[in-house]
Structures are given as structure tokens and as C-alpha cells.
């Protein structure tokens, strides 16, 4: 038999992992859980099916096969139980019998097809995991068995990925990361080192493609992945697996220090985007259900722990995940958690506020994540997009925001219009409504101008521009804020959004303050959209509920919005709603005389019921250069079981635009006990720059990009 060994584990590491068998450590529990799951799957009849529906039985059985082969290979090494190796070998031999008899998949996708799956992305996954499994069991295979597996599975796959689909191999994309990782790992597993070199440096070996080009171009210096957290948590697994391969087999690359430690930065960046409940914001085309418990994130946390160190946040993350990667990297984290728990209890992770720059050199805008705790320890998180478009998965929502507190997303992201792997829904692929609604500007918490989409829904144009950061300030315990410009997203208009969280003793939770300024020539319609969930409780304006509903518009996403109700507003408009046990009150105004609120719901022009039925309210105003200003207060408590309702009205009473011009904006906010004046510079400035502006014969002066003045209001006895 040809001498082989696992390409991701040494025998010393295997011995250390074996010591965890039966222990109550995190690694011990992980191994036990994997054994239980694997034994249950092995009890099923072996099956290598033919073609079927995307997401159907055949698709999922191939996925299960590679998942459990990968586990069985490592468990064979750790336990030396021969039946685990036999399971892998039996499946490999059946694939060797059938793989070349399968034609390319009958179901077509927008991506090239494989022999097993409807898109080669899934075939890349199969090859990556199966190659790792093979490397773990090849030592107990005969030379003839090894050669047959190579000839009838691995080499045809390598040829397909690097010759037939060579145009896709070097694609800078999450698919490309899977492709290069799969090819490199397979080449190493079967002793064809040239494929490892190709995977690292590209087919032409000129750095135009390959793993190093992928991580150099897709991740900013901050580590942020340009397609957003949903695709980041998918791309992070092959990224970390292949990084560990290179660390062991190409040490000259020095991968964990490459490009300013981009591997460590990108793990940190992914974790720091998550909401306090562990779910990832649905930035760009994204599912709303992905969280830090994803297996790829578990691998990433383990890799980071070994190569960059363990801190309290990683320990808290591992405790939530309740799993580690079954590898020596995971063992480092497991032992660190065990030692920490012997000394004290391990708390929940709290990631600090962070601005994550985008683009290969960090020059293509950023994503901002501000977090603030209230007196009870609840974390509010404010997210704003002022970075890159995100290529083909990008949404047209630069300067869009989302807001989270009390365990729920309050100003919500729709995510993608897709029912993943539900074959009757267009094969589980992206639905037409993904373009006609979910990616449109009106589907986000942003301002839509003249009922048009940013960049006219032109991906190439959108990819050529990006937001410009103004300030990101999170040092104060009272107020944190960020501001950015988007000056090339609507013809003839520049936009600036400045958002803040303000903590006041009289308020239960930080107050969200939002200033959205649009400057340009001519009159425009501005639709300030707010995606919420829950029950409308009250307004301060009269509105008409429509007995016969029509759409809010004819295109650009408006054709999917039912115009449910609407009414004219004056001064400060108020909309209050109940979401689960919490009340939220939004108050908004503008520098224009006109104001109108529309209550909408998705579902119009949707004959196949592809869209989720979700509500929104839109504050509409008309004018030239305009400032739209709003606040969102979190307050009160409702318990239906005990019929309790506390502080259902909140304490903020109004917001008013005192003035704005090209230099600055000034707004006034009244609460029950405070008068708040917020002053924001509308030009790029420094922390030491001094500003002076006069509106309505009142002079306002401050230093830095913004300032807040809070005056207590004397209460009459």
C-alpha cells in the first residue's frame, strides 16, 4: 500500500484528540455528538443516487455522503475503529462505480452543472470534504483501491474544474474560494502537488486567480467580505480549511500573516457583524436565518483561537456554539474554555462597535456596526451600509440601515426572495422577485428618490461607485454615531446619512436618531422607508384605510407594494407599533412643508406567492435639497398573558429641523425631561475643526464632526 497520512492532522495531534474521548470538555462533547450522528447515518443503506431536484433527496443524499465521509475519516484516526474507514471506502468505491456513468446534471442553473449536482459549486464542496476523508483512510486501502478512486473520481473532477470549467476556476467570488480550496486539497491528498500550486497562484500561476488573489481582492484590510455576512459565513469554511492546509504544506506563504493577517481579520470581521442574538444581518442577498452556530463559523473560531489567540469573546462564542472543530485547532479552544470555567463562569460575548472598511486596499467605503448597552445590559445594535455594492449579490441600498434590540430586529432587512432548495419555487434558486423587489432600494430602510432605484438597478454602474465614510465615533458613553456620503447613486443628487444612538437617564434604551440629507437641483419625491414587524398601535395623524387597494407604483419594487392606508402629516409625524413585548415609537419630519405617510404590505403582482407578506411605512415628502430627520424610541412592556402594559406611549414628543445647508444640519428633539440640540457637519472634517452656523438668528457653535447639547427641562410642580 502507498504510504499516506491525513493532510490536516499529525499523529501527535490525533493522539491528543483521542484523549478527549468520553470527557465532558467541549471537544469531548463534540466528538461524542459526531459519533452519535455518524452511527445513525451509517445504519442507513448505502446510497449513491442519480440526478434529482435541486434540494431534493438526491441532492441532499450526496451532501450527507460527503459530510459523513469527512467525519468518519477523522473519527477513524481518533478512535481507530475500522468500521469508520470501511464506511468511507465503501462509499468511495460506489462513487467510483457510478460517477463517470452520470452525465452532466439534467437540471440547469445559472452556474455550470456537475455530474452529481445541478451546479459545480456543490461539486466543489463534495470534492473538498471527500478528499479530506480519503486522506484519513487511504492508509488502510490497497494500492489498487487508491488508484481506482483517483482514476474514476478525483482526476476527472480535477480535470472538470481546471479544464472544462477553467473560466470559473479563477473567478473572484465565493464560488472561486470553494473551487481553489477543493482542487488544492484534492491535489495534495492524491499526491499531485501541481494542483496545490495552481490553487494557490491560479491556473496561469500569475496571481490573477487562485487563493491568494481571492483573499486579497474579496476581503478588505478590515477583513470584511464584500458579498456580506451571509456569503461570508459560507466562504469562511473553505478559507480557513485551506489556510490551515497552506500553513502545514506551504509554510513559505506564511498564510496567517499574509496581507496584514487577513485570515484573522476576516474571522474577527465576520463575528463582529453578528447581532447580539448571534444571527447575521441580512446584508445583500441573504437568508435571515444564518447565525454564529453555522459549522463554517465554528471552524473559523477554532482556527482563530490557535493561530491568533483566545479571548473572552471567543470563549463566550464557543460556549454559545457548544461545539468546536474536531481538529487540533478546536482542541486549543476547548482546553482554553475548560481552564476558564474552572476559574469563573464564562459570560456572553460582547463585540465592540466597529467600522469595517471595504475594497482590497480599504478605500471602497465601509460597513458600520454600533453597539450600546442600556442599564439592564440589553444591547442595541445599529448597522449602516456605506461600502461596495457586493457584485452580483449586491442590493441597491447604500446608506440603508437596520436596527436591533431586545432580542429582535426592529428596522428589518428583507433578505433575499428565494426559497432555498424548495424545488417547486423555481428550483430553489433566486426568484424573479429578488430583482423586482428584494434588491430594490424601496425594500430597504433608506430613501428612494422619484420612485427609482439607486444606480438604475445597473450592477456594473453600482460596482463602480461606493459610499464615502464621514465619521465613526463611539468613544462616548452618552452618544455614538456614524455618517457617510453616497454622491454617485442618483443622477444629480448627493446623499448624506448620519445616525446616532443617544443614551439618556430618562429613557429605557438608547434613542436612535437619523438625519438623511439629499442635495441637488430641482424638485424631487423622497420616500423614507421603514420596514418593521408587529402591530400598529397609534399615530398622531388621521389616515384613510383603503377599502380597495392598489399598488404604490408601477415598477422599481413599488409594483409589489399594496397601498393599504395613508394620511397627510404636519410638523412631527408619529407611528407607534408593538413588536412582541416591546413598544417602538417613530417620530419623523423634514425641512419641507409637505409630509405624507403610506402604510404598505408586500404581495402585489405576486401571483405565485413568492414574496413574504411584510409591512412597512413610508414617509413621503417633496422638495429640493432636503433634510429628513427621525427618531426611534424603544419603550415599555406588554404581556398578553397577564394583560400588562407599561409605558405604552414613550417619552419623546417631537423632532424639528432647525436648519441645514451645505455646511451643517441642526435638529431639535424634545423628551419629557430634556431639550436636545444635535449639530452635524455636512462636510468632511476633523475632530478639531471648529464650526459656527446661524439658523433663524440663532448661532450654533461646536468642535468636531458633530456635537449634542442636552438641557434639562424644569418640571412644573
UniProtKB/TrEMBL annotation:
Keywords (A to Z) from UniProt: Lyase, Periplasm, Signal
InterPro entries to which the protein is assigned, alphabetical: Alginate_lyase_dom, Chondroitin_lyas, Hepar_II_III_C
GO cellular component, one term: periplasmic space
Gene Ontology molecular function: any one: lyase activity
All copies of domain Heparinase II/III-like C-terminal, residue ranges: 368-625
Coiled coil: none
Signal peptide: none
UniProt domain Alginate lyase: residue ranges: 70-272
Subcellular location: Periplasm
PANTHER family: HEPARIN-SULFATE LYASE (PTHR39210)
Protein name from the UniProt record: Heparinase II/III family protein
Amino acid at each position: 500500500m502507498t504510504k499516506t497520512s491525513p493532510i490536516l492532522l499529525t499523529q501527535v495531534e490525533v493522539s491528543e484528540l483521542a484523549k478527549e474521548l468520553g470527557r465532558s470538555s467541549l471537544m469531548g462533547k463534540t466528538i461524542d455528538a459526531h459519533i452519535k450522528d455518524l452511527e445513525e447515518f451509517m445504519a442507513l443503506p448505502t446510497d449513491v443516487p442519480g440526478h434529482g431536484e435541486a434540494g431534493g433527496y438526491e441532492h441532499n443524499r450526496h451532501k450527507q455522503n460527503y459530510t459523513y465521509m469527512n467525519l468518519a475519516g477523522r473519527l477513524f484516526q481518533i478512535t481507530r475503529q475500522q468500521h469508520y474507514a470501511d464506511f468511507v471506502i465503501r462509499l468511495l468505491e460506489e462513487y467510483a462505480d457510478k460517477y463517470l456513468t452520470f452525465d452532466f446534471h439534467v437540471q440547469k442553473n445559472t452556474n455550470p452543472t456537475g455530474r452529481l449536482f445541478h451546479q459545480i459549486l456543490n461539486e466543489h464542496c463534495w470534492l473538498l470534504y471527500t478528499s479530506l476523508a480519503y486522506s484519513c483512510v487511504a492508509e488502510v486501502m490497497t494500492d489498487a483501491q487508491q488508484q481506482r478512486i483517483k482514476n474514476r473520481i478525483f482526476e476527472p473532477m480535477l480535470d472538470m474544474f481546471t479544464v472544462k470549467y477553467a473560466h470559473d476556476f479563477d473567478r473572484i467570488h465565493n464560488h472561486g474560494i470553494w473551487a481553489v480550496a477543493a482542487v488544492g486539497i484534492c491535489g495534495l491528498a492524491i499526491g499531485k502537488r501541481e494542483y496545490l500550486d495552481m490553487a494557490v497562484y491560479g491556473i496561469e500561476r500569475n496571481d490573477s486567480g487562485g487563493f491568494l488573489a481571492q483573499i486579497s481582492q474579496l476581503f478588505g484590510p478590515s477583513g470584511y467580505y464584500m458579498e456580506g455576512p451571509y456569503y461570508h459565513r459560507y466562504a469562511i469554511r473553505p478559507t480557513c480549511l485551506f489556510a490551515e492546509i497552506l500553513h502545514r504544506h506551504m509554510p513559505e506563504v506564511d498564510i496567517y500573516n499574509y496581507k496584514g493577517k487577513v485570515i484573522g481579520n476576516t474571522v474577527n470581521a465576520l463575528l463582529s457583524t453578528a447581532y447580539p442574538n448571534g444571527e447575521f444581518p441580512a446584508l445583500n442577498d441573504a437568508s435571515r436565518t444564518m447565525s454564529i452556530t453555522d459549522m463554517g463559523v465554528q471552524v473559523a473560531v477554532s482556527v482563530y483561537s490557535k493561530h491568533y489567540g483566545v479571548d473572552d469573546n471567543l470563549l463566550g462564542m464557543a460556549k454559545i456554539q457548544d461545539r468546536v472543530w474536531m481538529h487540533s485547532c478546536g482542541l486549543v479552544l476547548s482546553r482554553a474554555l475548560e481552564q476558564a470555567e474552572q476559574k469563573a463562569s464564562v459570560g456572553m460575548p460582547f463585540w465592540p462597535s466597529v467600522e469595517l472598511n471595504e475594497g482590497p486596499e480599504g478605500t471602497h467605503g465601509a460597513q458600520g456596526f454600533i453597539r450600546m448597552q442600556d442599564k439592564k445590559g440589553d444591547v442595541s445594535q445599529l448597522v449602516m451600509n456605506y461600502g461596495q455594492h457586493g457584485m452580483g449579490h449586491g442590493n441597491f441600498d447604500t446608506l440603508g440601515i437596520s436596527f436591533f434590540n431586545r432580542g429582535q430586529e426592529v428596522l428589518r432587512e428583507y433578505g433575499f426572495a428565494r426559497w432555498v432548495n424548495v424545488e417547486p419555487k423555481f428550483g430553489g434558486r433566486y426568484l424573479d422577485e429578488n430583482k423586482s423587489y428584494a434588491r430594490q432600494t424601496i425594500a430597504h430602510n433608506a430613501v428612494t428618490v422619484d420612485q427609482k432605484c439607486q444606480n438604475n438597478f445597473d450592477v456594473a454602474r453600482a460596482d463602480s461607485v461606493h459610499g464615502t465614510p464621514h465619521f465613526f465615533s463611539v468613544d462616548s458613553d452618552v452618544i455614538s454615531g456614524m455618517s457617510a456620503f453616497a454622491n454617485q447613486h442618483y443622477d444629480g443628487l448627493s446623499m448624506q446619512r448620519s445616525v446616532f444612538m443617544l443614551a439618556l437617564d430618562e429613557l429605557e434604551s438608547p434613542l436612535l436618531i437619523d438625519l438623511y440629507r439629499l442635495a441637488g437641483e430641482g424638485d424631487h419625491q423622497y420616500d423614507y422607508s421603514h420596514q418593521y414587524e408587529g402591530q400598529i398601535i397609534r399615530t398622531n395623524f388621521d389616515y384613510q384605510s383603503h377599502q380597495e387597494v392598489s399598488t404604490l407604483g408601477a415598477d422599481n419594487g413599488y409594483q409589489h407594494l399594496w397601498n393599504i392606508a395613508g394620511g397627510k402629516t404636519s410638523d412631527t409625524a408619529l407611528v407607534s407599533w408593538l413588536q412582541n413585548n416591546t413598544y417602538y415609537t417613530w417620530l419623523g419630519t423634514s425641512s419641507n412643508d409637505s409630509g405624507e405617510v403610506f402604510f404598505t404590505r408586500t404581495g402585489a403582482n405576486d401571483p405565485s406567492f413568492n414574496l413574504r407578506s411584510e409591512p412597512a411605512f413610508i414617509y413621503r415628502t417633496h422638495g429640493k435639497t432636503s433634510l429628513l430627520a427621525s427618531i426611534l424610541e424603544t419603550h415599555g412592556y406588554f404581556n398578553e398573558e397577564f394583560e400588562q402594559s407599561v409605558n405604552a406611549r414613550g417619552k419623546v414628543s417631537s423632532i424639528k429641523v432647525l436648519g441645514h445647508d451645505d455646511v451643517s444640519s441642526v435638529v431639535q428633539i424634545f423628551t419629557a425631561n430634556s431639550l436636545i440640540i444635535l449639530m452635524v457637519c455636512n462636510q468632511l472634517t476633523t475632530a478639531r475643526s471648529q464650526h459656527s452656523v446661524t439658523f433663524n438668528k440663532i448661532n450654533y457653535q461646536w468642535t468636531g464632526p458633530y456635537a449634542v447639547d442636552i438641557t434639562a427641562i424644569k418640571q412644573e410642580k
